[in-house]
Amino acid sequence: xxxxxxxxxxxxxxxxxxxxxxVSDKTKQPLGLLxxxxxxxxxxxxxxxxxxxxxxxxxxxxxxxEINANHLKPVKEGIVTGxxxxxxxxxxxxxxxxxxxxxxxxxxxxxRITLAVLEKK
Length: 121
Hints:
Elements: H1 2-5, E1 8-12, E2 17-23, H2 36-53, E3 60-71, E4 78-89, E5 93-101, E6 107-119
Antiparallel strand pairs: 1-2, 2-4, 3-6, 4-5, 5-6
């Protein structure tokens, strides 16, 4: 999915991870706007990767429990940027907030993902 949608990771910091995704024929819906599902795929990718970076992958792994998204501003072209930041990093669950912005830097979508942190057996 990441490769198909053209998602590329562009920055990592102490409390965030960033990725970009082109608005293209692969990510648009029939009206020529960025598809809401593409936004959610970007958000889930960012949240899942961030979740794995926040745990010890030798002993634990993360799986998605729930994701939601509010699509606030349509995007017709360019490259959107997603930034994920932690809301809650517990031993059993994590909650992450993802903001997706337009090429002009305006908020296009806000999403929240909840991950379960499971122990490898």
